[in-house]
């Protein structure tokens, strides 16, 4: 009964009710304050009766628990009991809150609530006789076991799969030819059989690592999200980020990354049976080298046959012996039963009951680990729960039994996780906070905090295999599909998930019983999902979980207001990630609230009523970039334990009273006020602070005693501290005061990260760099403009990352950086990253060794950046055997000559390097292992490395050269076999390019002297992406130049090249059979012939002579025409029937036919239509489509229309658009009305810009249209011009 019979966990568990009832409900009823309050209200007699009836109910719970699986009436009785327990807890919590406030409760009607609960309790007691529930006399075996130490590690043991592993490796490491362009190896088997485990075994095998150039792992799950899966693979292959949302761009980038590589990709847990989806997903995989493989794990042979022409590898259950070994390992910690021979026979029966499924055996083994007698094992084997028919439940009986035997305190915590969708990666820290808010955690009698208790609970569930660590992030965890099913089963009707399937949401649950719900965040879908919760009057958790979309989420203000009025009992409430700019005052009426997450919202001001939430434990405000205030009455949040306010750059003031919140453990940021607000010494009372703390505006501290009273040195749980003065502070306070202040702010030696910003003293305190900080791994000193020397950071034994920036008065760096008793030989032993930036006066760096040589070894340094240090001429010889990334900017070329032993260097970035004429001369030992080179603004660079035989960059894959004004030749590139990506921009002296036979992507821009590409027939036979921009003299002669190239090019962009005869280049003489994306801008040629066989996207901008579209565009999905002026009417002929996106921006002379003649209503795939201008005198779109129906097809989801200055009506234009979700109208000053039926559609975004008549009617709370549009999640009414509006449109809807 934790938190109301724990809240009987929750889910029909007798122990739960029995133990937690005593510890929670009875404790609450025994509260002195509550008793005093109850007497004053005349409720003490009824509360005593509650205790009596609960005691009677407790006595029969064991019997009810045993009978519930066989007798449906008993199960219903337990469900009703739990429902009552929740309501009891709500009332008791209300009593406790009001007792704490010392207020009367008449306004809440709690007396009537007590009467109702008393009646329900009596009814539950009467049903005991009817159901023949008996009081349990004999004590049941103790289901709890000693908790393992919190430092215990969970090991993974795999048995019985060595043969499977070797067989799969034979398939993986084979180079045998196949009819398929990419070899797919499916692993097929039932859930829990170990498909993923087997894939992991081969994926991490050393032979696989040696055989394949690249690997990637993607969990697909039942939502076959092509964009998401492709992005996951791209990130893994490139080991970088991916900001693209457009499938085309993601697939192009992935194709580039995989080209001519032998790769292994694992697609785990695939359910989708549609061949079309698989065909789209696999396109980037077709460019790999021979031997590339894809492993697919799936439960269905149908999926395997769709994805592969070969038979899948069928994975069977373990044998009895293998399962027995696995059980012994997890139950006994051994691989046999030699020490427990009396358990072996029972164990064999148990694994057979588990159907020899590894997951079930492992889970049950965790349960049996605490039991060592035959009776205990036999008791589990003979339990009735095994006999439940499988057609009554999708959950394996073994897993169900493992839950049944969980300690009572873990059951509600696990059941709560049923709100997480399958494959959802959750954070341990957040989950513990949610458990705490729901009352599942209790502070122990000792010194453990509730958070520590939750951490231990989490570790127990992890140890028992209910949780698994995510393979993508060590801080995140997942539940296996079967475990997730188990959680949903035990949670029953009290938990729901809202998905994008609204019909499923409506029928999936009994809403009046729901206490916990999650919903998958989507860009606009929240409003409809929230409306399904109107009957969930007793909701306790309302939690968004991140879906596939990474951007902002939108929801109407009205929906938020109505939702807060409906919810009366929430403990957990989150609007994280939603573009909410205003929070209703009614938030202050949610007196039960413990957890409130407003992170990533658009809030500027928090309502003062928020300070009424005296039970609030967690307030999350991270990434609220616009937030400017916290409630003045924040001191009233006496139970607040976590205030997350980092990344709140506009929060420049914080109120006083935070020092009274003595339970605070998390306080991400404080802003010291000059007067009246937060004072530095307020930190002194907050003895429990832990984690990260940023102290800003330290220039406002004028008394050093305030810093001493902050008592940072005794806050042992703070591991990350930022000490910051204002960047614009003029340093008017004395330097001595600043030094004393920094000295007084000495933190505890447990610190792992330290940042000091804009400090105005002229020297650092002695503690900065003191060797007693043995855990300090990261140090950043920035903007300390008055300091003339650096602190002794070399003494820090654990330092890994050092960044020194904007130290304007430092002229020399020497032994002071090592420390008094430390030489350079013994300094920085673990340093991995070193940055010096913006040190304009720095001239000399010396590292005198014990032998008197100016030399220093950094054995583990991986990243070195020296930037904006123009006077630095002398540095020591640096031995850098582990360096992989080197960045030099605005400094002398002589620095590179001092870098030695660069055997690991693969990434080089030079910018504004003074005196750099050739890379060959930059190094004494040239780094031959380079893979990526970037050269920018090196104006003295005349060649890359010349014809030197000492430079052999056979591994170079990417080269970027920008604004190198004297560079005239790139002849060195002709002998680079691995070069795939070449970008040349603003190199005004460059005359030609060499033959580049292996190039995949070529981008050339603003090279004013470049007149022709090489005439070799084998110019770019593997080129897939070609972009040429603003090369005024460039031409292509003779035609043979691109003959072989054209067959491979998939993406072509030509911008502002007046000498490039595109009519000849793109004419029928070239096949361009692979071309899918064509973008041409600023072209004066007649483009009457275009390469069309495979074209999917065509964009023409400012092309003066486009009068009609060529034929044969049968695959075209996206057509974009911007300012393409022509004296002829447009369009001529029909649009391609496959068209999905159509954007028309009329030029000055482009005349558009009447829209009724376009035949758009026949385009059954069209989703977006954007039209700008083209009808200067039009007042209304008249007529209908060529078939007498609507002008536009009903499939349209996005419409934008603008620059029609005389337009007065859109009724005909918008007729029949029942699927419309996005409507943007701009620069139509005469338009005064919209068809009401369009506003009644489930619009998700409405943008009106520079339409004054419409703007007036759409004003919030005042315009007559407002009642019709207030439910739209995203409404933007503005008068700031059209540019930003149209870009907003394309940012969300480009192909």
Automatic annotation (TrEMBL):
Q: Nucleotide-binding: present as a keyword of the record?
A: yes
Boundaries of every NB-ARC domain copy? 162-331
Q: Which UniProt keywords apply?
A: ATP-binding, Leucine-rich repeat, Nucleotide-binding, Plant defense, Repeat
Report the Gene3D superfamilies cross-referenced here: 1.20.5.4130, Helical domain of apoptotic protease-activating factors, P-loop containing nucleotide triphosphate hydrolases, Ribonuclease Inhibitor, Winged helix-like DNA-binding domain superfamily/Winged helix DNA-binding domain
Tagged with keyword Nucleotide-binding = yes
Residue span(s) of domain Disease resistance protein winged helix: 419-487
Give this protein's Gene Ontology molecular function annotations: ADP binding; ATP binding
Its GO biological process terms?
A: defense response to virus
Domain Disease resistance N-terminal residue range list: 25-109
Every R13L1/DRL21-like LRR repeat region domain range: 680-807
Q: Where is the signal peptide?
A: none
Pfam families membership = LRR_R13L1-DRL21, NB-ARC, Rx_N, WHD_DRP
Identify its protein family.
Belongs to the disease resistance NB-LRR family.
This chain belongs to which protein, by name? Disease resistance RPP13-like protein 1 isoform X2
Please report the organism this UniProt entry assigns to the protein. Answer: Coffea arabica (Arabian coffee)
Gene name on record? Answer: LOC113732349
């Amino acid at each position: 009964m934790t938190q109301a019979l724990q809240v009987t966990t929750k889910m029909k568990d007798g122990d739960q009710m029995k133990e937690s009832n005593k510890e929670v409900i009875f404790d609450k009823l025994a509260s002195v304050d509550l008793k005093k309050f109850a007497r004053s209200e005349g409720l003490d007699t009824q509360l005593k009766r509650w205790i009596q009836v609960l005691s009677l109910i407790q006595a029969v719970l064991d019997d009810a628990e045993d009978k519930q699986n066989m007798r449906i009436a008993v199960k219903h009785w337990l469900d009703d009991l739990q429902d009552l327990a929740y309501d009891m807890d709500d009332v008791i919590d209300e009593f406790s809150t009001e007792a704490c406030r010392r207020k009367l409760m008449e306004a809440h009607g709690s007396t009537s609530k007590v009467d109702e609960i008393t009646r329900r309790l009596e009814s539950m007691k009467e049903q005991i006789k009817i159901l023949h529930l008996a009081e349990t006399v004999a004590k049941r075996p103790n289901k709890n076991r000693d908790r393992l130490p919190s430092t215990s590690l969970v090991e993974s043991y795999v048995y019985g799969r060595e043969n499977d592993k070797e067989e799969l490796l034979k398939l993986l490491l084979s180079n045998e030819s196949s009819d398929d362009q990419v070899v797919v190896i499916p692993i097929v088997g039932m859930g829990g059989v170990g498909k993923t485990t087997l894939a992991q075994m081969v994926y991490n095998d050393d032979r696989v690592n040696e055989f394949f150039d690249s690997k990637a792992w993607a969990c697909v799950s039942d939502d076959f999200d092509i964009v998401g899966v492709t992005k996951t693979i791209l990130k893994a292959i490139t080991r970088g980020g991916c900001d693209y949302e457009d499938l085309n761009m993601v697939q192009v980038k992935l194709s580039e990354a995989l080209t001519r590589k032998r790769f292994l990709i694992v697609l785990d847990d695939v359910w989708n049976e549609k061949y079309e989806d698989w065909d789209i997903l696999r396109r980037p995989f077709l460019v790999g080298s021979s031997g590339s493989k894809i492993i697919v794990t799936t439960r269905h042979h149908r999926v395997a046959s769709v994805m592969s022409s070969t038979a899948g590898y069928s994975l069977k259950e373990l044998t009895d012996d293998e399962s027995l070994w696995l059980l012994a390992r997890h139950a006994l910690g051994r691989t046999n039963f030699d020490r427990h021979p009396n358990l072996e026979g029972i164990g064999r029966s148990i694994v057979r009951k588990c159907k020899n499924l590894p997951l079930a055996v492992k889970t049950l083994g965790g349960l049996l680990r605490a039991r060592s007698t035959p009776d205990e094992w036999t008791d589990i084997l003979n339990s009735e729960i095994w006999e439940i028919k499988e057609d009554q439940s999708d959950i394996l009986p073994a897993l169900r039994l493992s839950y049944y035997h969980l300690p009572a305190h873990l059951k509600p915590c696990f059941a709560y996780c049923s709100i997480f969708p399958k494959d959802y990666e959750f954070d341990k820290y957040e989950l513990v906070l949610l458990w705490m808010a729901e009352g599942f955690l209790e502070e122990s009698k000792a010194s453990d905090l509730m958070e520590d208790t939750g951490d231990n609970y989490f570790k127990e569930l992890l140890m028992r295999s209910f949780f698994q660590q995510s393979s993508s992030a060590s801080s995140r965890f997942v539940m296996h599909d079967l475990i997730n099913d188990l959680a949903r089963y035990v949670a029953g009707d009290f938990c729901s998930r809202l998905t994008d399937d609204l019909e499923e949401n409506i029928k999936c649950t009994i809403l009046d019983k729901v206490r916990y719900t999650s919903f998958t965040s989507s860009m606009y879908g929240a409003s409809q999902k929230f409306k399904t919760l109107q009957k969930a009057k007793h909701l306790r958790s309302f939690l968004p979980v991140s879906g596939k979309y990474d951007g902002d989420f939108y929801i109407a203000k009205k929906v938020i207001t109505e939702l807060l009025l409906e919810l009366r009992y929430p403990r957990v409430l989150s609007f994280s990630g939603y573009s909410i700019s205003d929070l209703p005052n009614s938030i202050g009426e949610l007196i039960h609230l413990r957890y409130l997450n407003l992170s990533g919202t658009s809030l500027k001001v928090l309502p003062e009523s928020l300070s009424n939430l005296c039970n609030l434990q967690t307030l999350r405000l991270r990434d609220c970039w616009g937030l400017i205030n916290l409630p003045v009455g924040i001191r009233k949040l006496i139970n607040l334990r976590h205030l997350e306010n980092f990344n709140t750059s506009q929060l420049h003031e914080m109120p006083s009273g935070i020092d009274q919140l003595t339970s605070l453990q998390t306080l991400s940021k404080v802003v010291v006020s000059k007067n009246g607000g937060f004072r530095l010494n307020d930190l002194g009372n907050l003895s429990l602070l832990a984690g990260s703390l940023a102290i800003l505006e330290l220039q406002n501290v004028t008394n050093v005693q305030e810093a001493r009273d902050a008592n940072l040195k005794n806050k042992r749980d703070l591991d990350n501290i930022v000490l910051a003065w204002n960047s614009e502070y003029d340093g008017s306070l004395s330097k001595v005061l600043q030094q004393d202040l920094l000295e007084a702010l000495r933190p505890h030696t447990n610190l792992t990260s330290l940042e000091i910003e804009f400090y105005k003293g002229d020297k650092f305190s002695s503690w900065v760099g003191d060797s007693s900080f043995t855990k300090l791994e990261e140090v950043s000193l920035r903007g300390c403009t008055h300091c003339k020397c650096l602190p002794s950071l070399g003494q820090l034994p654990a330092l890994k990352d050092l960044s020194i920036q904007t130290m304007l008065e430092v002229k020399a760096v020497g032994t002071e950086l090592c420390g008094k008793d430390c030489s350079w030989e013994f300094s920085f032993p673990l340093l991995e990253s070193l940055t010096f930036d913006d040190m304009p006066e720095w001239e000399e760096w010396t590292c005198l060794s014990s032998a008197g040589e100016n030399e220093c070894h950094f054995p583990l340094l991986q990243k070195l950046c020296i930037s904006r240090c123009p006077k630095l001429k002398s540095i020591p010889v640096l031995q850098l055997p582990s360096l992989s990334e080197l960045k030099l900017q605005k400094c002398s070329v002589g620095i590179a000559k001092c870098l030695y032993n660069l055997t690991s260097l693969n990434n080089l970035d030079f910018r504004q390097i003074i005196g750099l004429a050739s890379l060959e001369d930059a190094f004494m030992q040239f780094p031959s292992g380079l893979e990526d080179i970037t050269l920018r603004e090196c104006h003295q660079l005349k060649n890359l490395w010349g014809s030197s035989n000492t430079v052999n960059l056979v591994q170079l894959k990417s080269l970027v050269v920008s604004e190198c004004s004297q560079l005239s030749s790139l002849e060195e590139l002709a002998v680079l076999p691995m070069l795939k990506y070449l970008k040349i921009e603003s190199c005004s002296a460059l005359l030609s390019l060499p033959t580049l036979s292996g190039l995949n992507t070529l981008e050339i821009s603003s090279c004013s002297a470049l007149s022709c590409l090489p005439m070799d027939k084998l110019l770019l036979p593997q080129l897939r992406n070609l972009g040429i921009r603003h090369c005024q003299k460039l031409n292509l002669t003779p035609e043979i130049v691109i003959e072989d190239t054209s067959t491979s090019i998939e993406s072509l962009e030509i911008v502002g090249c007046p000498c490039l005869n595109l009519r000849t280049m793109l004419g029928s003489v070239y096949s361009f059979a692979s071309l899918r994306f064509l973008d041409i801008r600023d072209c004066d040629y007649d483009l009457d012939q275009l390469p069309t066989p495979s074209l999917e996207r065509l964009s023409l901008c400012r092309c003066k002579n486009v009068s009609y579209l060529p034929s044969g565009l049968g695959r075209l999905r996206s057509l974009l025409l911007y300012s393409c002026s022509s004296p002829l009417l447009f369009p001529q002929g029909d649009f391609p029937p496959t068209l999905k996106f159509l954007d028309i921006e009329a030029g000055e002379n482009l005349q558009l036919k009447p829209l009724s003649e376009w035949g758009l209503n026949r385009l059954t795939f069209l989703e977006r239509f954007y039209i700008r201008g083209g009808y200067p005198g039009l007042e209304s779109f008249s007529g209908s489509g060529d078939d007498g129906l609507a002008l536009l097809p009903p499939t349209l989801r996005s419409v934008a229309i603008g620059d029609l200055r005389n337009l007065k009506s859109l009724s005909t234009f918008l007729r029949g658009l029942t699927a419309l979700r996005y409507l943007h109208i701009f620069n139509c000053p005469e338009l005064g009305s919209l068809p009401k039926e369009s506003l009644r559609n489930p619009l998700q975004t409405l943008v009106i810009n520079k339409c004054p008549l419409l703007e007036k009617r759409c004003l919030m709370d005042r315009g007559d249209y407002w009642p019709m549009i207030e439910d739209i999640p995203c409404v933007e009414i503005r008068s700031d011009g059209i540019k930003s509006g149209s870009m907003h449109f394309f940012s969300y809807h480009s192909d």
